[in-house]
């Protein structure tokens, strides 16, 4: 069984300093706290129960996601928890429901537990920064880095939007509608739409203004009748796969087939899209590996004082049966 003395020896400090660093009950530098915590994690140290019956405080990190029910964020969260378990950290979870105001309250709640660091998926890092307090080491997940948040793990959402639109144009589609959750709630959706607009314009085609809807609670009630009448699209791009499923349901309620009448494609690559008949055409994002990368980057920053970095991961077009050539 690993002892506190072994942790102190690994960290290069006294037994008293190691105790203060792990329990946050005395004067000790942030650098030494990180060294001691890393040593404890590497050695698998677990504090013994003292006479008072209370365990020493286990280091934790905080994770903010937009929605726990979205498979994209659930996959990332699972990888974060697995990585932190190995490092001896607990994981606190909060969700924003794609609401910038609730986002700030959720982060404040995470900070009450004095986390070692934070992994945040925010609505928009440019606007969220003004609402957030001073933060411990922080890594953005799925958001592009900013001057205030230079550490991030992202996929190229703009490039993914371009690639999906290019594929549809190559298949003969010219009237392509983009259906999205509110851009104010997701800069990821906005980047995907910007990729669509740029590609349409590059081919001399007129991009259609995005149809924006709430991210929460309306996918199964989506009404496309007005958009279908106004634009007569031959293809619809949804800003994520869950919304793509809602689009397919709305088209079927209008008596239209997919892809016979209208082609549909999405983003994320969630498993349920592969189980559909026909399987969903989508841009697959490596959500699990992104979560693991964000966790490793945060640990490196918090425990080793490593510099903030921007890590970009590759996406992949997965052709299914919901898109056809015309």
UniProtKB/TrEMBL annotation:
Pfam families: LacI, Peripla_BP_3
Keywords: DNA-binding, Transcription, Transcription regulation
Gene3D superfamilies recorded: 3.40.50.2300, lambda repressor-like DNA-binding domains
Residue ranges annotated for the HTH lacI-type domain, each copy included: 2-56
Residue ranges of the TM segments: none
Keyword Membrane: no
PROSITE patterns listed in its UniProt record: HTH_LACI_2 (PS50932)
Cited InterPro entries: HTH_LacI, LacI/GalR-like_sensor, Lambda_DNA-bd_dom_sf, Peripla_BP_I
Top-rank taxon, per record: Bacteria
The protein's name: Substrate-binding domain-containing protein
Species of provenance: Rhizobium puerariae
